User: What shape does this take?
Amino acid sequence: AGPVNGSVFRQVGVTAQKTMRLLPASGRKATQKVVVGDQDGVVTCFGIKKGEAVPVFKTLPGQKISRLELGGALNTPQEKIFVATGSEVRGFTKRGKQFLSFETNLTESIKAMHISGADLFLCASYIYNHYCDCKDQHYYLSGDKINDVLCLPVDKVNCITPVLACQDRVLRVLQGSDLLYEVQVPGPPTVLALNNGNGGDSGEEIVYGTSDGKLGLIQITGSKPISKWEIGNEKKRGGILCIDSFDILGDGVKELLVGRDDGVLEIYNFESADDPVLRYDHALSESIASIQGGCVGKDGYDEILASTYSGWLTGLTTEPVHREGGSGEELKLSQEMQSKISSLRNELEHLQMKVLQEREKYQQSSQSSTAVSSVPTFSVNDKFTLNKDDASYSLILEVQTAIDNVLVQSDVPIDLLDVDKNSAVVSFSSCDSEPNSNFLLATYRCQANTMRLELKVRSIEGQYGTLQAYVTPRIQPKTCQVHQYQIKPLSLHQRTHSIDHDRPMNTLTLKGQFSFAEIHSWVVFSLPEVPEKTPAGDSITFYFQNTFLGTQLESTYRKGEGCFKSDNISTISILKDVLSKEATKRKINLNISYDINEESVRHTLKLIHPKLEYQQLLAKKVHLIDALRELQVHEGNVDFLLPEYRSILEEADQLLEEYKRQPAHLERLYGMITDLFIDKFKFKGTNVKTKVPLLLEILDGCDQDGLISFFEAA
Assistant: This one.
């Protein structure tokens, strides 16, 4: 049996990823203390006694805490508490006495931290630093943002081997200040953990979790990586924020505990000793920032402790809800529960009274002649990412308090897609696309206690601008925060490790008096997932894949020259227009040349056609459902219908659900084929817009050979 009974221990301030740990059990007591750092800069340490939190120490507020780790001399209990706050690392004893204040030489805030004995590993956005006894040892500049850092256990591998989890889907393994090798992983890695808590038997095994919800285990040997297992995200769950190893099932083998950004907590165990199997999951209402396994609430009963974004600490325990034994024990349990309920009621009444008093006080002070209005501050955790599976963007908004409503506005045409987990009521307002370039205005009204809202949008490549979310929580006085997200010209492209060089490619070449930094800034403007920092070296190559069509793009550029290759003419056409416009803004003359491969058009049409055929068939089936249902009502029996019509009736709900999820899919495909047709002839200097109606007629016929012939004959 897995952990069953959930209990909430206490709430601290808003917490960042990896900021809660369990201190090792000390002395005769088997229960462990909890230590957590929040974004108010407060470190809180507490134990649990009879289901109540008992404070050990609490520090004064300060800069927000971005990481919390435990340390100590190697092979001794790790009970010293280290927190990263701004560019400083502070150390506390388990009693709360500060013994270290180390101001690093980092110009940015610390984003990731790892501690091993006297060695301290710190990362800012792109910079890694290694200190030993607070003295600078090694430094490395990463090619993309660093999300997490880890070092293989020195006592097992006998050398210092740091591993960086970088946003460009790569783990970078270092030796001193140099890159030893890179490990490609299937998504942007967000968190690293030592397998089994100690790196496994070899000490070389690392578990990683990605922002698109994938898990994997890699052995980091001295010369090359060995991939052991990889788990996809078939259930389309959230990104992984935290990982721990702990034997919660009591079978002598440590399970893998995983916390996700959609609030799902998972336990994987190793039944076959090879690949992990999902044994248990539990849904919380907000993202899980930290996860730990240990014995917290009651001696003899292990539990999983999770800290969530808004600072709630929740435990899932193996302690049975109903104890075995006589009625006397059950009576004792009910009395214990009754006293707990009674104390909670008293606390709630006290809080309600306090809120009323404070509200009255605020009303009086706001009406006085010397009133000064203060806008309440609140924290919003947001994430805007492209999903490879359905070529849509997910916008996740998480607020530390309940959301009242979210207004979404866009100055470019985008589709809002349905999200199953979304219980908010959406209403659309009509808007003028001229002269304000206002294409979308939608309001999501949230149900009470909604703290996390997920939206899905699909953009059109070539149309770029800004999506804005106005977030209003349920707090007084009413206040709102605006968050902006860029929809880029090639918004449906995603970084990839390699491409197929055998495809027919079109080439766009730029030459001119521009610097490496200038052309890099144009590429950042045009494409998602490109690091904002100008890469080190003289030149750089990035590979991309179009998530909607599967076409590809290779971009190589240096000072004074850029070369872009794609098997889709429309991609080249969009890049040509955007890069020309950006260069003109900076008054830079560009010499643009292009080499168009006629075979690429046929190749792209063959990629689009199966999707087109599927969507046309789906639309036809959906249009028949009402008529077939009417027949069913009148006739009572549908055995006389052809099998294909009977199967439409049987699958009606699934068909309608799929059609509803992708409302404008068919129009998107028509638009892409039309753009491909126009772009093909644009490069030849011919305007074929008058032939578009004829093209649309052929598309309705859905004949691949006829479509290719039309493209070649036009």
Remarks:
- The longest helix spans residues 327-367.
- The two ends are 68 Å apart (CA to CA).
- Residues 323-333 have pLDDT under 50 and may be disordered.
- The domain at 16-238 is CATH 2.130.10.10 (Methylamine Dehydrogenase; Chain H).
